[in-house]
Every structure is written in structure tokens, then in C-alpha cells.
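Class, look over these C-alpha cells:
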Amino acid sequence: MGVTGPEFALLCVTVGVGALLQVSIGFGLGMIAAPVFSLVDPALAPVAVLLLAGGVTATVLLRERGRADLRGCGWALAGRVPGVLAGTVLVVALPSRYLSLFIAGVVLVGVAVSMAGYVPQQRRATVVLAGMASGLMGTATSVGGPPMALVWQRLRGPELRATMSAFFLAGSLMSLTALTAAGTVGAHALWGAVLLAPAAVAGVLLSRPLTRRLNVRRTRVAATALAVAGASVLVVQQFV
């Protein structure tokens, strides 16, 4: 990767913290990592983030196996298909600057919606629409968590983590397949994911002793604050 030592250290810390949050609360890696990756090395987003998030969610799914709502996950993935196609078009069509602004906007909108206290009915149509929104956002920016966290917020603990992980693992593979077909998956992003994989592993290992001690509400607030900070700096950078 064409980054300095301090920049690589920042990426490692971001991935480690994001992985810890992903394992603990079911999402967070994409929301925190996408703005930072776009700031440090835009060529890494969204592919490297999707690869790292896919590995982390696979770990969570193995840990919480048998607890996922597979029926609900199936409807969400059905909605994700058109979302993935739309997100791929955005990645191909948008210049780097506008894609960075879109990433920042998605993070900030996702934070605003999650803080609004809106609790949608967990109906089939709602889950499909959330899957569609997640597919678009996740493919274009690697931030696909907010729509699903919103629609599945009634789930608790292991069931939430397992359901979110099952959806994101399958969804990440769908997004990566579409991006590969569109010719936007390069060696640079793949190598970046390989180099940052140890940081993701460290976050997963740290999550085991820390998960029981973490206050879920405070952890969500901290993750939200980090995401807003990263997105805000990303916006400012585009206009400086």
C-alpha cells in the first residue's frame, strides 16, 4: 500500500476497533472504517473494507451458530440484490471525490436515523426494503449496517449478532462478486486487505474477554461518535 507508517498504524487501529465492535454489537466495522479508509487511501474503499468485514462476520456466525433468523435474513438478501446492482453502478460512475462525499453522507444519514428512535415494524416488506438500502449502501460505500440495525433492533444479543452476521457475510460476497464483474476489484485493495487482516484478527480475539464487560448502549454511542468524526473530517477534506 502507498501509505506512510503512521497512516498504516491508523488503519490497523481502525480495523481492530471496528472488528471488536462488529463482534460485540453486530455491526460497526464498515461505519467506522469506510471514512478513515477514504481519507488515507481511497483506492481501498469499498473493496478492502468489504473483505475484512466478511471475514469478521464469518467468525461471529461460527460463534453464534444456530441462532440466526434465517427466514428474515433470506428476505433481506432478496432485497439486497437490486441494491447491490445500484451500488455497483455508483462505484463505476462516480469520481473518487464524489464517492468519498457519498460515503460520508451515508454514514451521517445512518447515524441520524439510528439516533432518531424510529422503530419500524419487522414485516416482510420492511425487511426487503432495508435489505435493498443496505445493498446499495454496502456495495458503494461498505456501510450497510444502519438499515439492518434499524429493522432488526428488536432482536437481542446472540440472535441479533448471528442474524446480522449471516446477512452481511452473504451480502458482502454478493457485493464483491458484482464489483469484480464490473472490474473495480484491483490488486491494491486485495493486498491492503491482506496486510490489515491481522488487525481484524486482533479485534476479534480482544472481543471475547471484553464483550461481557461492554455496556451495549455506551458502545453504540462510542461507535457513532467515531463514525461521525471520520465522516466529518472526510467532508472537510474534500473542500480544502
In short: The two ends are 24 Å apart (CA to CA). Residues 5-239 form one domain. The first helix runs from residue 5 to 25. The CA atoms of residues 16 and 201 lie 8 Å apart.
